[in-house]
């Protein structure tokens, strides 16, 4: 993939791509905060999605996946927080279908062009009266209100807008996500959405999304729990009027990098705002035997409770890092592993280096901690993001769910 | 395996089997507590071991494994806490060999009959002068002092003695272990030791140990981190003079069940005394498709941070349990999973049951929480043990290691 100069892809102020509208309102699912919203394109959009691998896939996730897989087209999405509509049986499935039908009626489109997404408490049914009453209140705005309506225990909305030029056509990509948190009861029901006015075939978009999710959303961890509702959906409505994207062209590479930028930004925002987190932790693995090894090692390190607690305590405890590396099945040269934290080398050839502990401890007080691991086993790399393990994580997740 | 009546295997007060001696003293590795000890049999014993799968296996673990694998014979073990002698390179290996030689000299036996075990800080070299000076102070006692000398952040020693009769010969099995904790720096360097005066061939003993460790020590988790020093060693010196054990005989079954009782008791004691733990959590999975499925699901549940935090908060949050089940690759009938906590049914056929939340919450305040999961997918079972995730876990593991 070509390396892009910064003027080819630019992060811009939050804005929706041409033809996308949305809204976010409060209908009483949460106590006072926004809890219900929609997002739609004025024309049908090419659609791609990636979904949780949890065997208990929630009804809205299953429905949206089915719609997208039919012909990779979607026009609108109905979104809610507070109730995940997961483990809700036949009633939950019928409620998801009802939501789909209601939004199809409102937009006057075929139900097959409508998806739904929910996040919140597992096992509770959606209060369909509140949703039915809320639907007429949704208006087509260009505001960012919908990015608030999907939040649960998140501290901030996660958003990014980037622009690039494809064959002389200005293209905008705008993404938003909800992270790990909840009101009731703190399931990491992660949702991500990317909209763009680029013109791209649905199956091409699906390939690009799946490929990029592997190295972004699939490489973050807050607590190691894969929820029943996780989903990342990308809609491309083509209104930028660029020539449709084809693999191997410069336009494809530019758009793919812009998409990667959006997805990795959202992923990092989710990790940094993990439940109770005070720090974003990034792990970069180099010289791995394979990409899978690199990604596995990076994710194991940012996922280790012992490493996470040490980082909360600003403790350069590299023994926990090397032990975590050794507990993976990645190919290792066990006498030649190097570790650095925030650029300060701690371990060379698997042995302790002398280092200025006060200096390392001081850098670990920053809001971002970077762990570099060199495996000396090949030329592949891997990257992952997580957060520290804090008193507040335990507090948030120990409180009673009713 | 036949079901034994309680009078065939009895738990008795702590005592060493015939011919075993030990001691535990303070030599300055820790500030004030016992940190150094030995354990030996007056005659060579059949020996079996299981060892960490971590690729960075510590020097003492590697040395003891090599000795046992030669001919399944061992006579003595030198033990220390505070320094794990892990990731210590050639110097660490030579130090382990030196310890072995010193103890061989003291016992006047061949070094191939000596093992060593260390637990504590990764990456630091053993202070060999302290060990050399400490060795002459070790005396052959029948006390339980050695069970203290291996502890780090453990709150209590973990011990058990059981007796059974094999063909008219009284046989004693005594086990002890150290759990998850540390002084410096809190690695879960788990060590377990079982001594017995039973007569049993080393390879038979190895088979029994490996088989029982799978369903006991390998089914506990405190924080999901596999250390570099984990090891369980069993010594059988034959002084009970029973006919040597052979598979398929009643004696074999009795001894095997006694061994299972010792190992599962030590494993549960480690889980209950996990870092910061206030509760032992036991998960029993029934009607799994395979034993591996049952064990995987049970271990995933007791290992989930979200489940562990909910149990600390006395929150019957079954959504986290079912989500954890779904995140495994166990064969599931996703519409027919049942969940109960402390005997109170919460979920039937994967759907919420009405339950008295105050009553469930009250039972979750007890020091032991039992989660029962019925997968309706076969006739295999699985069991695992863990503990809750508490403020104190974070506190213990966030403190600076120097």
TrEMBL record, chains A, B:
<dbReference type="InterPro" id="IPR016117">
    <property type="entry name" value="ArgJ-like_dom_sf"/>
</dbReference>
<comment type="pathway">
    <text>Amino-acid biosynthesis; L-arginine biosynthesis; N(2)-acetyl-L-ornithine from L-glutamate: step 1/4.</text>
</comment>
<keyword id="KW-0808">Transferase</keyword>
<keyword id="KW-0068">Autocatalytic cleavage</keyword>
<comment type="subunit">
    <text>Heterotetramer of two alpha and two beta chains.</text>
</comment>
<comment type="similarity">
    <text>Belongs to the ArgJ family.</text>
</comment>
<dbReference type="GO" id="GO:0004358">
    <property type="term" value="F:L-glutamate N-acetyltransferase activity, acting on acetyl-L-ornithine as donor"/>
</dbReference>
<keyword id="KW-0963">Cytoplasm</keyword>
<feature type="binding site">
    <location>
        <position position="178"/>
    </location>
    <ligand>
        <name>substrate</name>
    </ligand>
</feature>
<comment type="pathway">
    <text>Amino-acid biosynthesis; L-arginine biosynthesis; L-ornithine and N-acetyl-L-glutamate from L-glutamate and N(2)-acetyl-L-ornithine (cyclic): step 1/1.</text>
</comment>
<feature type="active site" description="Nucleophile">
    <location>
        <position position="189"/>
    </location>
</feature>
<feature type="site" description="Cleavage; by autolysis">
    <location>
        <begin position="188"/>
        <end position="189"/>
    </location>
</feature>
<comment type="function">
    <text>Catalyzes two activities which are involved in the cyclic version of arginine biosynthesis: the synthesis of N-acetylglutamate from glutamate and acetyl-CoA as the acetyl donor, and of ornithine by transacetylation between N(2)-acetylornithine and glutamate.</text>
</comment>
<dbReference type="InterPro" id="IPR002813">
    <property type="entry name" value="Arg_biosynth_ArgJ"/>
</dbReference>
<feature type="site" description="Involved in the stabilization of negative charge on the oxyanion by the formation of the oxyanion hole">
    <location>
        <position position="120"/>
    </location>
</feature>
<keyword id="KW-0511">Multifunctional enzyme</keyword>
<protein>
    <recommendedName>
        <fullName>Arginine biosynthesis bifunctional protein ArgJ</fullName>
        <ecNumber>2.3.1.35</ecNumber>
        <ecNumber>2.3.1.1</ecNumber>
    </recommendedName>
</protein>
<dbReference type="InterPro" id="IPR042195">
    <property type="entry name" value="ArgJ_beta_C"/>
</dbReference>
<feature type="binding site">
    <location>
        <position position="189"/>
    </location>
    <ligand>
        <name>substrate</name>
    </ligand>
</feature>
<dbReference type="Pfam" id="PF01960">
    <property type="entry name" value="ArgJ"/>
</dbReference>
<keyword id="KW-0028">Amino-acid biosynthesis</keyword>
<keyword id="KW-0055">Arginine biosynthesis</keyword>
<feature type="binding site">
    <location>
        <position position="152"/>
    </location>
    <ligand>
        <name>substrate</name>
    </ligand>
</feature>
<keyword id="KW-0012">Acyltransferase</keyword>
<feature type="binding site">
    <location>
        <position position="402"/>
    </location>
    <ligand>
        <name>substrate</name>
    </ligand>
</feature>
<feature type="binding site">
    <location>
        <position position="397"/>
    </location>
    <ligand>
        <name>substrate</name>
    </ligand>
</feature>
<feature type="site" description="Involved in the stabilization of negative charge on the oxyanion by the formation of the oxyanion hole">
    <location>
        <position position="119"/>
    </location>
</feature>
<feature type="binding site">
    <location>
        <position position="275"/>
    </location>
    <ligand>
        <name>substrate</name>
    </ligand>
</feature>
């Amino acid at each position: 993939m070509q390396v892009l100069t910064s003027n080819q892809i630019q992060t811009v102020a939050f804005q929706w791509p041409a033809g996308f509208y949305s809204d976010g309102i409060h209908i009483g699912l949460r106590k006072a905060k926004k809890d219900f919203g929609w997002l739609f394109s004025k024309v049908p959009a090419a659609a791609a999605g990636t979904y949780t691998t949890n065997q208990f896939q929630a009804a809205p996730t299953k429905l949206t996946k089915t719609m997208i897989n039919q012909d990779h087209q979607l026009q609108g999405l109905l979104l809610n927080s507070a109730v995940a509509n997961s483990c809700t049986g036949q009633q939950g499935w019928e409620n998801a279908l009802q939501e789909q039908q209601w939004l199809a009626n409102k937009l006057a489109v075929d139900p097959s062009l409508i998806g739904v997404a929910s996040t919140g408490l597992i096992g509770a049914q959606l209060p369909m009266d509140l949703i039915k009453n809320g639907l007429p209140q949704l208006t087509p705005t260009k505001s960012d209100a919908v990015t608030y309506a999907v939040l649960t225990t998140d501290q901030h909305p996660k958003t990014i807008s980037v622009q690039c030029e494809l064959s002389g056509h200005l293209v905008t990509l705008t993404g938003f996500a909800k992270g790990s948190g909840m009101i009731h009861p703190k399931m990491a029901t992660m949702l991500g959405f990317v909209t763009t006015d680029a013109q791209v075939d649905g199956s091409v978009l699906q390939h690009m999304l799946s490929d990029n999710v592997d190295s972004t959303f699939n490489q973050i961890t807050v607590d190691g729990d894969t929820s029943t509702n996780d989903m990342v959906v990308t809609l491309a409505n083509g209104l930028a009027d660029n020539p449709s994207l084809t693999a191997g062209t410069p336009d494809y590479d530019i758009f793919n990098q812009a998409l990667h930028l959006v997805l990795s930004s959202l992923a990092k925002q989710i990790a940094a705002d993990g439940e109770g987190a005070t720090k974003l932790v990034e792990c970069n693995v180099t010289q791995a035997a394979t990409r899978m090894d690199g990604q596995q090692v990076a994710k194991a390190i940012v996922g280790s409770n012992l490493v996470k607690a040490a980082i909360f305590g600003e403790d350069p405890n590299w023994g926990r890092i090397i032990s975590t590396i050794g507990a993976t099945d990645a190919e290792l040269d066990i006498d030649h592993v190097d570790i650095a934290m925030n650029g300060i080398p701690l371990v060379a050839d698997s042995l302790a280096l002398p280092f200025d502990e006060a200096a390392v401890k001081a850098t670990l007080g920053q809001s971002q901690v970077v762990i570099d691991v060199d495996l000396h086993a090949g030329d592949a790399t891997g990257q992952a993001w997580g957060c520290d393990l804090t008193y507040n994580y335990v507090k948030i997740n120990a409180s009673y769910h009713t």
